[in-house]
Amino acid sequence: MIFSLDVITPIIDDPYYFGQIAAANALSDIFAMGGNPLMALNIVAFPEDQLNTLELMLKGGAEKIKESGAILVGGHTIKDNEPKYGLAVIGLIHPKKTIYNNRPQKGDLLLLTKPLGTGILSTAIKKGIADPAIVKETTSWMTKLNRLSPELLNLSIHSLTDVTGFGLLGHLSEMLNKSNLGAEIWMKKIPLIADVSKYINAGMVPGGTTKNREIYSCLVKKEPDISLDQEIALYDAQTSGGLLLSVNPDQADKAKTLLCRSGFYLTQIIGQVIEAHSNKKIYII
Q: N or C terminus: which one in the chain shows less Cβ crowding within 10 Å?
């Protein structure tokens, strides 16, 4: 049995889609261990004068819970000045098939299933300057469940994590933390939401992204031609972001094909696990 809880504040104005995003974000922790969600409890904080939107939010969340294969068994609600929503989720996994987030092997290839930039774009959405097409694309990725097919889970996936608040480089740092291994990241292979650079240059960088750069940059070395906006995207704090997989190199192409078939059509092999020769464990080229 595996258990997780996650709660977030609204990142878009539409309560129905916010409910879907919050639920997908909470369910992701179960999928990121290779498990299947069994049941979920709503965790809600809400202002009394906005109850008309509460029903829409919970409807969105309930639909994602059903899509995941879990059942909604209740929840708890408190009054608050700011809406907050998430789930406590119980899942199941065979003890010998649990995939941990910190056991990559030298030579593994790294796959990323969703494009980066949801933190940047969520900030632009809040400021009211995001193009409608970009809002639609960003929402679509954040509402997509991180469920992996049984065929994919039977491959040699040595390490797995979802990319959320610590950004790609933060979660990659956690993956490498307990070993003498590092990673080479290929910037040209990184999938990004359209026009991310434009919004970064417009100042739409959330505080969490800036904080990630402050914390994790001491572990990172980059080539001189990596631009500031490219670098910031790698630290961007994601909500309901994609999965980062460390896969046996002989099976990486098959993993990519299976992920694309599952709707992760922008999946890319973004780098490789290497031996670390200094405290700069991550090398961006």
A: N
Average confidence score pLDDT of the chain: 95
**Co-location of 74 and 113 in the same domain:** no
Are 278 and 190 within one domain?
yes
- Asked which of 96, 117, 152 is the last residue of a domain, the reply is 96
* pLDDT for the residue 178: 83
d(CA 218, CA 206): 20
71 and 123 share a domain? no
Tokens standing for residue 30: 């179960």
Say which amino acid occupies 283.
Y
Amino acid identity, position 157: I
CA distance 101 to 106: 15
Cα–Cα distance for residue pair 262/155, rounded to 1 Å: 15
Check whether residue 219 and residue 257 sit in a common domain: yes
| Single-letter amino acid code for the residue at 29 | D
Residue pLDDT, tens place only, 117-127: 999 999 999 89
Q: d(Cα 197, Cα 228) in Å, to the nearest integer?
A: 9
CB-based contacts of 94: which residues, under 8 Å, 6+ apart?
A: none
Same domain, 169 and 253: yes
Boundary (domain end) residue, out of 96, 127, 147: 96
What's the pLDDT tens digit per position in 89-118?
A: 999 999 899 999 999 999 999 999 999 999
